[in-house]
Amino acid sequence: MMFHLNLFSKSSNFFWKALCYFSAEIVSPICIPDSEICFKCPEKEWPDEKNVNCIPKIYEFLSYDNDFLTLIFLFISMMLLAMTLLVLGTFIYYWETSVVRANNRTVSLILVISILLSLLCVFLFLGRPVDITCMLRQVSFGVFFSIAVSSVLAKTITVCIAFKVTKPGSYWRKLATVKVSNFLVLFCSSVQVLICVIWLSVSPPFQDYDMFSYPEKIIIQCNEGSVIGFYSMLGYMGFLAAVSFLLAFVVRTLPDSFNEAKYITFSMLVFCSVWIAMIPAYLSTRGKYMVAVEIFAILASSAGTITCIFFPKCYIMLFKPELNIRKEIYFRK
Q1: Helix axis angle, 131-164 relative to 105-120, nearest 10°?
Q2: What are the phi and psi torsion angles at 111 (to 5°)?
Q3: Reported pTM
Q4: In the 8-state DSSP scheme, what is residue 175?
Q5: How many CB atoms lie within 10 A of CB 59?
Q6: If pLDDT is split at 50, 70 and 90, which confidence band does 83 have?
Q7: Nearest to 156 by CA among 131, 128, 184
Q8: Which contacts (CB < 8 Å, 24+ apart) does range 94-101 have?
Q9: CA-to-CA distance for 313 and 309, rounded, in angstroms?
Q10: Maximum distance among all alpha carbons in the chain?
């Protein structure tokens, strides 16, 4: 009889240990050694390797302290900021020259400043997110990028009107003015501002804790609030970029003496390619890597725009001053 009881006791002990082992993968308990009792760890803790003690979960976000990815983004952002400031300083210094005047200098200045502000938005994506940074980073990024793309669209429309409508005294020729370009920038960017205001009013972004994607981690992230608002903001920005690309592509065969449309085509091609590739990558990642994908898209599209549109002009102003005269700009073949 004692043999049967001991056998039952051993079987029971084995059963409870097996139950603890398999339940560790499901409910994250700890099991007291040589006992039939298991306890579930608190929500913010996780069992150790032996399933004996509860240890705190790791908080995951793009930290300034010990995250190598954050340092990489900081370095790239600072380099692009320095490059954009150099372009801005060059344009201001050569403000009265033919290259700057021939390329709608007011809209070009707005474009450079908006790209500069978009690069500064990267710093809102780094560090531990809180409610205020969650609201500011998406809205500021969307508004500043929309101003940049609206400026590109205004430059594109101006080029189309100036070089496709050749009839003297035409009504369309009268629209190729600085006031019309400024109005286009203001109107197109105001639509994005309206979208963002409605988004913040209905369901703004907020700080959120994801405790389920990884059992051993707590992801501190920004919940976008209204998904419709977030994708409406991205969709409108993509719409502006697509229209700019199509218009610039149509007039890409302008004379080499004024190939602004070619530069806009290349810049918008880079811009659209980056953000189209970003969407599936953004949706398939979690945690800090999701934020990293968006930061990479901001940096890559900003670098592509500033490089394709402004580097050729800066090259002429800095290294080919003999070409920076009215005769060369308009009559060079």
Answers
A1: 160
A2: -65, -45
A3: 0.80
A4: G
A5: 13
A6: very high
A7: 184
A8: 94/317, 94/324, 97/317, 97/324, 98/324, 98/325, 98/326, 98/328, 98/329, 99/313, 99/316, 99/317, 99/323, 99/324, 99/329, 100/313, 100/317
A9: 8
A10: 115
Give the chain's mean pLDDT. Answer: 79
How far apart CA 237 and CA 150 sit, in angstroms, is: 9
| β-bridge mates for residue 207, sequence order | 222
Q: What is the pLDDT of residue 14?
A: 45
d(C-alpha 168, C-alpha 212), whole Å: 67
Distance from C-alpha of 113 to C-alpha of 107, rounded to nearest angstrom:
10
Question: What superfamily in CATH does domain 68-324 come from?
Answer: Rhodopsin 7-helix transmembrane proteins (1.20.1070.10)
Average pLDDT over residues 205-228: 86
Cα 37–Cα 43–Cα 49 angle in degrees, nearest 5? 60
Residue 119 CA to residue 137 CA, distance in Å, equals 11
Confidence band (pLDDT; 50, 70, 90) for 182?
confident
The reported pLDDT for the residue numbered 163 is: 65
For 42-62, the pLDDT digits (tens) are 777 777 777 777 878 888 888
The structure tokens listed for 26 are 């499901």
Query: Where along the chain do its domains lie?
Result: 23-56, 68-324
Q: Is residue 125 within 8 Å of 294, Cβ to Cβ?
A: yes
